[in-house]
UniProtKB/TrEMBL annotation:
This is Two component Fis family sigma54 specific transcriptional regulator. The modification 4-aspartylphosphate is found at residue 55. InterPro entries: AAA+_ATPase, AAA_lid_NorR, CheY-like_superfamily, Homeodomain-like_sf, HTH_Fis, P-loop_NTPase, Sig_transdc_resp-reg_receiver, Sigma_54_int. One of its GO terms (biological process) is phosphorelay signal transduction system. Pfam families: AAA_lid_14, HTH_8, Response_reg, Sigma54_activat. It comes from Edaphobacter aggregans.
Length: 490
C-alpha cells in the first residue's frame, strides 16, 4: 500500500459514512467523506483522491452519475461502488462504465481492504509507467499482441481501459486467434502484475478431476486424495486466473464457479470451511457463447456474470494487413529460441502469406514461421521455406489445437481433400502419409496414427504427444486396430 493514499468516501447515511472513514483511516489511508454525489464530485475535483468509494443510491446525484462525471476528470481515479444485495446488476453495469470494483452491503472489511490495496498498487504502477496510454496505442501492440489494423487497435484500446479494473472479462474467437495473449495482457497491465497468472484449459481436464483442479481438495476428500491440494484459484491468489474453453466445464462445476465469483470465497472438496479468494477471472471460449447458453453447454447466469466485458478476437483472415507485423515478431522470437539469424522475409513470401486464408489463425502462422526459420537458419525467408503444397487446394495445415496436434481434424481434412482428387501429399516431416481417393476418415486417421508411431520407433508416449491425444486414447486405438485385424483373419 502507498503511504497516505487519498480515499474519498461518498455515502448519504451518516453512521455508515463515519464508520467507513474511521475504518479506512485505520489502514493508513488519508480519508475524507461527502454526503452525496454533488458534494463528492466537488471534493474529488478539489482534493484529488486516487480512490473514491461511493454508494450507488444517493439523493441529488447517485453513484452512477458520479462515476460518469469522475470519468471526465483529467486525473485517473479508481471508483469502488457500494451496493445493496438487490442492486448487483446495477453494480455490474457500473463496472461496464469504468468502475474499478464493487462491494455489496454490509461491507466485508477484508474484501474492502483488498480492493483498496489493489487499487493503490494500480495507481502506483500508473505513476511509475514511462509509456503513456497514447504511446502504448501508437506502438501497435499490447503485451505479446501486435497489429496496426483498425480491428486490433480497437482491441488494444479496450484491453488498456479494462485492465486496471477487477472486472471479469470473456474473450471469444476462433481457435488460434490469441485469446490467452489477451488474458496475459490484461494481467500485465493491471495492478496484479507481478502476482501469479494461472491458465487452465477446462477441456483438457477429466470431468472427475476438474472441480479438484480448480477449487482444490482436502486430504481424504476422495480416493487418491493423499494430501491437501490448493486449486487454481488459490494458486492465482492476488493474480489472474484464465479459464480457457469455459463452455467445456461441467454444469455442476459451473454452478460452483458462479458462487465463487459472487461471494469471493471457495470451499475445497472435502472441507467445511470457506476460504476468501482475491482473483481476477478471465474466461475464454472458441464457441459462440450465446449459442452455448441456448444449447445448455454454458449456464446463462454464469455467462452474464463473466461477460461484463467481451473482447472478441477476429480471425486472421479478417486483418491480414497485420500478417507482416505479426510475422516479424515471430521471426524475432524464433531466432532467439532456435539460435537462428533470420533477418526478415522476401516480398514474394509476404504476398503469399497475406493471400492465404489461415484457417488455423495466428497459431498456424506461428507454426509456419517457426518451420521456415529453422529451415533457413539465416538471411531472408522465401517461398521455398513454406510447407509443401502451401496454399494449394486441399492443403491440410498441421495446426496445433490446445497445444497439441488434432489427429482426427487432420485426418478429416485429408479425406476431404482426397475427394477432389487434386492433392495426394499432405503431411511431410521426414515421413509422408499418402491416402488414396475414397479413403474413409477412420482409415485416414488409422494410417496417420500408425505412421506416426512408426516414425517414433514405437514410442507410444511420444507418438501420443505428437498426435495430440492421450496415451490411453492411443492404446485404445491400437487395441481397436488389433481387434479388427484379428476379426478379419478369423
Amino acid at each position: 500500500m502507498i503511504a497516505l493514499e487519498k480515499v474519498l468516501i461518498v455515502e448519504d447515511e451518516v453512521h455508515a459514512r463515519s464508520g467507513l472513514t474511521e475504518l479506512i483511516e485505520s489502514w493508513g489511508y488519508r480519508a475524507e467523506s461527502a454526503a452525496d454525489g454533488v458534494e463528492g464530485l466537488e471534493r474529488a475535483v478539489q482534493w484529488g483522491p486516487s480512490i473514491v468509494v461511493t454508494d450507488l443510491k444517493m439523493p441529488r446525484m447517485d453513484g452512477m452519475e458520479l462515476l460518469e462525471r469522475i470519468g471526465c476528470l483529467p486525473q485517473r481515479i479508481a471508483v469502488v461502488m457500494l451496493t445493496a444485495q438487490g442492486s448487483i446488476d446495477s453494480a455490474v453495469e457500473a463496472m461496464r462504465m469504468g468502475a474499478y470494483d464493487y462491494i455489496p452491503k454490509p461491507v466485508d472489511p477484508v474484501r474492502l481492504r483488498t480492493i483498496l490495496q489493489n487499487a493503490s498498487r494500480q495507481h502506483e504502477l500508473d505513476e511509475q509507467a514511462e509509456v503513456s496510454p497514447k504511446e502504448v496505442r501508437q506502438s501497435a501492440g499490447v503485451g505479446a499482441l501486435v497489429g496496426s489494423s483498425p480491428r486490433m487497435k480497437e482491441i488494444f484500446s479496450l484491453i488498456e481501459r479494462v485492465a486496471p479494473s477487477n472486472v471479469s472479462v470473456l474473450v471469444t474467437g476462433e481457435s488460434g486467434t490469441g485469446k490467452e495473449l489477451v488474458a496475459r495482457a490484461l494481467h500485465d497491465l493491471s495492478g496484479r502484475r507481478g502476482k501469479p497468472f494461472v491458465a487452465v484449459n477446462c477441456a483438457a481436464i477429466p470431468e472427475t478431476l476438474i472441480e479438484s483442479e480448480i477449487f482444490g481438495h482436502e486430504k481424504g476428500a476422495f480416493t487418491g486424495a493423499l494430501e491437501r491440494r490448493a486449486g487454481c484459484f488459490e494458486l492465482a491468489e492476488e493474480g489472474t486466473l484464465l479459464l480457457d474453453e469455459i463452455g467445456e466445464m461441467p454444469a455442476a462445476t459451473q454452478a460452483k464457479l458462479l458462487r465463487v465469483l459472487e461471494d469471493r470465497k471457495l470451499r475445497r472438496l472435502g472441507s467445511k470451511m470457506e476460504t476468501p479468494v482475491d482473483v481476477r477471472v478471465v474466461a475464454a471460449t472458441n464457441k459462440d457463447p450465446e449459442q452455448a447458453v441456448a444449447n445448455g453447454d454454458l449456464r446463462g447466469d454464469l455467462y452474464y456474470r463473466l461477460n461484463v466485458f467481451n473482447i472478441q478476437m477476429p480471425p486472421l483472415r479478417e486483418h491480414v494487413e497485420d500478417v507482416a507485423r505479426i510475422a516479424d515478431k515471430m521471426i524475432a522470437d524464433m531466432n532467439e529460441r532456435h539460435g537462428c539469424t533470420v533477418s526478415g522475409m522476401k516480398d514474394i513470401l509476404l504476398k503469399r502469406l497475406e493471400e492465404y486464408k489461415w484457417p488455423g489463425n495466428v497459431r498456424e502462422l506461428r507454426n509456419t514461421i517457426e518451420r521456415a526459420v529453422i529451415l533457413a537458419g539465416s538471411g531472408l525467408l522465401g517461398v521455398e521455406h513454406l510447407p509443401p503444397q502451401f496454399g494449394s487446394p486441399g492443403f491440410a495445415p498441421l495446426v496445433k489445437k490446445s497445444g497439441q496436434y488434432a489427429a482426427r481434424e487432420i485426418a478429416a481434412a485429408i479425406a476431404e481433400a482426397n475427394s477432389s482428387g487434386e492433392v495426394k501429399r499432405y503431411i511431410e516431416d521426414q515421413n509422408t502419409v499418402r491416402v488414396e481417393v475414397g479413403t474413409t476418415v477412420d482409415e485416414a486417421e488409422r494410417q496417420l496414427i500408425l505412421k506416426t508411431l512408426s516414425s517414433t520407433h514405437n514410442n507410444k508416449t511420444k507418438a501420443a504427444e505428437i498426435l495430440g491425444i492421450s496415451s490411453k486414447t492411443l492404446q485404445n486405438k491400437l487395441k481397436e486396430y488389433q481387434n479388427s485385424a484379428s476379426s478379419a483373419t478369423e
